[in-house]
């Protein structure tokens, strides 16, 4: 059984999917599913250490024009549909030309296909460029999606929004978590990070810099809390996805004299990324919406205290003492930071939450996710 995953980008700067897909395929490989990734890049090169570390088979096709349109990829899908050498195509994301052309060819040649929207069919997501998305939906997208073998949703809210978008078969399978191995502090040779000044304590934001992620609210909360004056540091790890937004944040930092406390690291990949999670005390992400939030999962399995928005599918954090959920409000987030300080008086005792219990009771491992998908793949393959 051969399954090809098509995703518009798979390099590390793409964010969560560039982490979750390799982890998923690593577990799927244990079940002897022949998997491969086809993606698009400007220069046919991909910077994703996980793909290489896990031995994932992948092919990258050069972009022809537009954001992600690759005629070479379209031709490759066409040949595979004609030859019938791919049993199932699994598309990741919706508003992307590789998905549109791929699903169209699959439907023409009657090749089974699956869709993982990855938050792109949330009602909130549909509001962005609403007119264009409505037009594309009416012209062909609703029809193509309704013919999927199934649409993979990661939680009930996403399933509800998908079914509101069109009539299709859905299954709900959360993304998994990957339990860490030995401490990266011991195993990594990264001198740059080990020599960094992490201050009295430190906060980590690990995501792309985009208005949807509300980094400006997190930094404003940091400023309001007064922790900068106590020697705290705020590390921002992630690519700039919106230059105007980034400039506005930089102006706020300068205006409030935070340039010695807020550190922009750019894109950080493994093993340095795991080192950051281990060294930093608090992880913060105040997204307007997330269908999962891979960086939140990475923070929790690294035993970081997490402060996240209520618009993410992570709950029961307070019950286990591993974090808290807040409204996207600088005052409320500042109070959450100060509350963290009040219950954690020293660095050595700062990670007192029941992380093992939280993961056991609220998370699913990637191996279990792979077993659920393998069962669905097998059903389609044998039908």
TrEMBL record:
Gene3D superfamilies: Glycogen Phosphorylase B. Pfam families: Glyco_transf_4, Glycos_transf_1. Keywords: Transferase. GO terms for molecular function: hexosyltransferase activity. InterPro entries: Glyco_trans_1, Glyco_trans_4-like_N, Glycosyltransferase_grp1. Residues 203-313 form the Glycosyl transferase family domain. Residues 15-179 form the Glycosyltransferase subfamily 4-like N-terminal domain. This is Glycosyltransferase involved in cell wall bisynthesis. It comes from Thalassolituus maritimus. The lineage of its organism: Bacteria, Pseudomonadati, Pseudomonadota, Gammaproteobacteria, Oceanospirillales.
């Amino acid at each position: 059984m051969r399954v090809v995953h098509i995703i518009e980008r798979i390099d590390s700067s793409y964010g969560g999917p560039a982490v979750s897909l390799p982890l998923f395929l690593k577990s799927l490989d244990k079940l002897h599913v022949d998997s491969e990734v086809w993606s698009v890049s400007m220069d046919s090169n991909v910077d994703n250490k996980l793909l290489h570390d896990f031995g994932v088979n992948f092919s990258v096709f050069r972009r022809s024009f537009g954001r992600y349109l690759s005629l070479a990829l379209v031709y490759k899908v066409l040949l595979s549909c004609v030859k019938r050498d791919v049993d199932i195509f699994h598309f990741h994301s919706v508003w992307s030309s590789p998905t549109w052309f791929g699903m169209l060819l699959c439907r023409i040649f009657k090749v089974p296909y699956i869709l993982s929207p990855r938050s792109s069919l949330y009602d909130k997501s549909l509001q962005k460029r609403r007119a264009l998305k409505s037009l594309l939906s009416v012209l062909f997208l609703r029809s193509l999606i309704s013919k999927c073998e199934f649409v993979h949703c990661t939680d009930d809210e996403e399933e509800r929004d998908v079914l509101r978008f069109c009539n299709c078969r859905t299954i709900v399978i959360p993304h998994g978590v990957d339990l860490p191995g030995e401490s990266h502090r011991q195993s990594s040779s990264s001198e740059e990070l080990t020599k960094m000044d992490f201050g009295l304590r430190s906060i980590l934001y690990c995501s792309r810099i985009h208005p949807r992620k509300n980094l400006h609210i997190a930094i404003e909360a940091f400023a309001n809390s007064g922790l900068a004056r106590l020697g705290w540091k705020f590390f921002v790890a992630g690519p700039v996805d919106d230059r105007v937004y980034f400039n506005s944040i930089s102006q706020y930092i300068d205006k409030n004299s935070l340039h010695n406390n807020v550190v922009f690291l750019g894109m950080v990949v493994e093993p340095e990324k795991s080192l950051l999670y281990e060294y930093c005390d608090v992880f913060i992400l105040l997204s307007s919406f997330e269908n999962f939030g891979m960086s939140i999962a990475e923070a929790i399995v690294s035993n970081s205290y997490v402060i996240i928005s209520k618009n993410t599918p992570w709950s029961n954090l307070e019950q286990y003492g591993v974090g808290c959920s807040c409204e996207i409000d600088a005052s409320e987030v500042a109070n959450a930071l100060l509350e963290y300080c009040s219950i954690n008086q020293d660095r050595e005792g700062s990670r007192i939450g029941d992380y093992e219990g939280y993961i056991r009771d609220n998370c699913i491992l990637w191996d279990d996710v792979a077993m659920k998908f393998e069962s669905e793949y097998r059903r389609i393959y044998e039908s």
